[in-house]
Design goal:
By secondary structure, the protein is α/β, with parallel strands linked by helices. Helices cover 49% and strands 15% of the residues. The strands form two sheets. The chain has a six-stranded parallel beta sheet with strand order 2-1-3-6-7-8, with helices on both faces. A two-stranded antiparallel sheet has the order 4-5. The N and C termini lie far apart (48 Å).
Length: 228
């Protein structure tokens, strides 16, 4: 099944780079490119893309606010935000307006491809460096703000009937915000093996993506948080 993708960014060179990466997947088809908010809405109307990859800072408006309008008018189109910002306000605002993904422009090619695949299947994808933001917000809500500080120490405790020791190690590193490549380097295994472990974790935990897996691990008490 072909995934139709539109790329919205005011830098042509960056658009070309993203396009070249996505075209490595035969199931991805770039149906249109644009440079601003007006282009995004026009393209969504004319091409009905499955996924729109949207920059934040563009002429004629903000990509996050454009996401709100696009999602309202074209609910079947999923938006992935591209950003230079790791700030919590940007990430939270993007998710609140309906974005299904949030990527940093320093990502590698595999992260971009993984994000589009996950979002296409109905999941959400946060760049590993900003996953902790969502987890911290959940922690603050459940703790009534009584737990302060950042994710200082996490330990994924094995569920005897669910995850293997290796899967617990991988889940631990997902909670630490590591990419597939980073996990592979830490455990001396290939990225393909890491992906297989992540797929098994998602299946066993009955979640759609790695962000949900990390939040579920915290919710179920598999994550211990050391106070600063």
């Amino acid at each position: 099944m072909t995934t139709k993708i539109a790329i919205i960014d005011d830098h042509q060179l960056f658009r070309e780079g993203v396009k070249r990466i996505l075209e490595l997947k035969k199931t991805f088809k770039i149906v249109a490119e644009g440079k601003d908010v007006w282009d995004a809405l026009k393209i969504a109307s004319e091409h009905n893309p499955d996924v729109v990859i949207m920059d934040i800072n563009m002429p004629n408006g903000n990509g996050i606010e454009a996401t709100r309008e696009l999602v309202e008018k074209f609910p079947n189109t999923k938006v992935i935000i591209l950003s230079l910002h790791e700030d919590e306000n940007y990430v939270t605002h993007a998710l609140q307006t309906g974005a299904k993904g949030y990527l940093l422009k320093g990502m590698d090619a595999d992260t971009l491809i993984d994000a589009v695949q996950v979002v296409t299947k109905g999941g959400c994808y946060l760049h590993p460096k900003v996953t902790h933001i969502l987890v911290n917000q959940y922690r603050q809500l459940t703790a009534g703000q009584s737990v302060r500080g950042a994710f200082v120490h996490n330990e994924i405790r094995r569920s005897s009937h669910l995850l293997t020791n290796r899967e617990c190690q991988v889940l631990q590193m997902l909670a630490e915000g590591k990419s597939n490549r980073g996990i592979g380097e830490s455990l001396s295994i290939s990225e393909k093996t890491v992906k297989n472990h992540v797929s098994k974790i998602l299946e066993k935990m009955q979640v759609n993506d790695r962000t949900q897996a990390v939040v579920a691990a915290f919710k179920n008490g598999w994550v211990e948080i050391g106070l600063p």
